[in-house]
Amino acid sequence: MQSQSTSVVQKLKNEVLYHLDIFGQQPNFTILNRSKYPSLLGLLTSLMICALGFYFFLTEVVTMISQSKPAIYQTELSISNTEPFLLYNDNFTLAISIVNRFSEPIIGIDRYFNLNISQCERLRNINKDSGKISIDLKCTQLPIEPCNMSHFTTDIQQEYFSIIRMGGIQCINRKYQEENPLKLQGLITSNAFRYIFIQFSACHNTSLSQTCASQQEIESILESGHYNIYKSDYLTKLDRPGQPFQEFITNEFTSFSLTTSKTISQRYKILETFTDEGLIWEQISVQSNIQQSEWREISEFYNNQYLIVHYIMLDYKQTNNIRTYVKLQTILGKLGGIFQIAVMIVAIILRPIIENFMKLEMVNNLFNFSEQCRDTKVQINMTNNQQSNQQLTKRNLNRLSQSNLETWLIIFGCKQFKKQQFVFAKNKVNKNLEIVNILRKLQEIKVIKKTLLSKEQQILLKNFRYQIGQKAFLFQKKNQTENVQNIILQNDQDNLNFNPDLVPSMISQKGNFQKDFFNSCDQIQVINSLNECDIQEPSPQKLKI
User: Which GO biological process annotations does it have (predicted)?
Assistant: First the structure.
């Protein structure tokens, strides 16, 4: 019972090893003492494919490093509660001017008109005990002053305002904005809602201030004109490495008069860009900016309070951009796929040609080609392993092709007679490689062994191993050059006839064969060259007893 369990475990172990070992080596046949047949055409084609693959690899690596062709995905989200988006002087431009109907600036704040810029904050608080909601609204008026070039720090701002007359343009105090940046957050329904509020109104004297001009003068100045605002906006540049956006400045304006009150709603949409900058592993960087999504005006009759109120707030939608660049493993995967496709396409064209090269080299080593027997076109060369150098040279002269050029001419049919010889010899080689013929020859050899050898001799032959000693190894190394020149391939087994009628005579010689068997097991049987004219293809016959 224990032995059976051990046998089952061992069998299971062998099966697991057999099926899970992905590096298991399969046995391979050799062709002309090599595991594959190389050719100059195949080498040149392989080098061309490798060169194209290397060129593709370089271009993809350059694209990966330069980050010029990202893969871009875009999604939109509906937002309610957001984090405050901070607006500094270097990432947001805000400047306002009031001009008359002739586009001339009206200079006279607190004399003809009032202009206020406020940061408003509306907080919604919920009492946990009572569940009541309280709303706290607070607006902080920002100090403004006439603009000069010191208010504009970026190159785009300086380039834009360098050609504009600054006299009537108002900006937020630069130092104050650096210390207290503007904030945009949430929606009107959010728990925290922050926005910018701008009010433009006609000047009115109060108990605290008596600096306004007369009513007739104010009406003549503000009879009609334009409210101009210089503001930032952003272009999306997702194909540009680094910052995925580009700032530009626009001038929006709307008309005003003392007969109407106008409300402007300006919304900015948050754009968040997630960039994977890693070459191999994921490396995410996040960049945010705002982009104008709405400019809407609503007019009504003058309400004696304001000419224009302007709200700057966030949009209810947010856009997320996801961009990724090609990674090294992706390039290698593409390269592998392209390489396989290229090899498949080229193999369809070149495989028949290279196969003919291989078959031609095989028949050159198997057969002796001459013009003495044109009817059969091929004379089989079977020589002794110890043939002299002179005989070897003569054999080389009887090869079907003597040069690479002649090989091409034969394969493509430019030499018709040698092409016919090659086709005939190739067909014979293909017959010998037929598995049915190989099994038939093995059966014939088995019949001969059972006929000529006793059971003891069959066992000895089965267990016989050729011994390679130190002397034989040294002798082989010493004469390596001479042996390479004198090696001749074994004879084509298809050219030996197995005639069952000869079996009785072979049995009569059994006694002599038994005496000489072990003395001749290390030698190769000498077979003289036979003409193809005298050889017939073997046909399977039944053994006569």
Answer: reciprocal meiotic recombination
Picking from 278, 308, 325, the residue at the C-terminal end of a domain is: 325
Do 296 and 387 lie in one domain? The reply is no
What is the C-alpha separation between 247 and 278, in angstroms, rounded?
Answer: 26
Strand order in the sheet with 94-100: 144-146, 169-172, 94-100, 224-236, 245-257
pLDDT at 384 over 50: no
453-494 pLDDT tens trace: 888 887 887 777 666 655 544 445 555 545 444 443 343 333
What end-to-end distance do the CA atoms of the chain give, in Å? 49
| Tokens matching residue 346 | 């080229």
111, with CB counted inside 10 A (0-12, 13-18, 19+), is middle
408 & 306 share domain = no
143 and 219 in one domain? yes
Residues 318, 419: one domain?
no
pLDDT at 469: 54
Q: How many residues does the chain have?
A: 545
Q: How big, in percent rounded to 5, are the helix, strand and coil portions of the chain?
A: 40, 30, 35
Same domain flag for 413 and 489: yes
Which amino acid would we find at residue 330? T
Q: How far apart are CA 273 and CA 441, in angstroms?
A: 75
Q: Which of 266, 256, 295 is nearest to 113 (CA)?
A: 256
Q: Give the chain's count of helices (H) and strands (E).
A: 15, 16
CA dihedral sign of residues 142, 148, 154, 156: positive
Contacts of 114 (CB under 8 A, 6+ apart): 199, 200, 201, 202, 203, 204
As a whole number, mean pLDDT of residues 352-361 equals 83
What three-state secondary structure class fits 231?
Answer: strand
Domain span at residue 264 reads: 74-325
Chain-centre distance for alpha carbon 476: 52
Least confident of 32-36, 173-177, 339-343, 541-545: 541-545
Domain boundary among 310, 325, 340: 325
Dist. CA 340–CA 335, nearest whole Å: 9
pLDDT digits 0-9 by tens, 294-328: 999 999 999 889 999 999 999 999 999 999 888 88
95-to-29, 166, 224, 295 alpha-carbon distances in Å? 85, 10, 20, 17
Please indicate, yes or no, whether residues 364 and 321 belong to a single structural domain of this protein: no
What residue type is 296 in one-letter code? R
Task: Count CB atoms within 10 A of the CB of residue 220.
Answer: 12
Per the DSSP assignment, residues forming a β-bridge with 408 are none
In the predicted model, is pLDDT for residue 133 greater than 50?
A: yes
In whole angstroms, give the CA distance from residue 6 to residue 35: 39
Residue of 297, 293, 292 whose CA lies nearest to 264: 297
Tell me how many domains the chain contains: 2
pLDDT tier, 509 (very low <50, low <70, confident <90, very high otherwise): low
The lowest-confidence range among 160-169, 254-263, 375-384, 404-413 is: 375-384
**Chain centroid to CA 19:** 31
pLDDT tier for residue 40 given thresholds of 50, 70 and 90? confident
- 488 neighbors 386 (Cβ within 8 angstroms): no
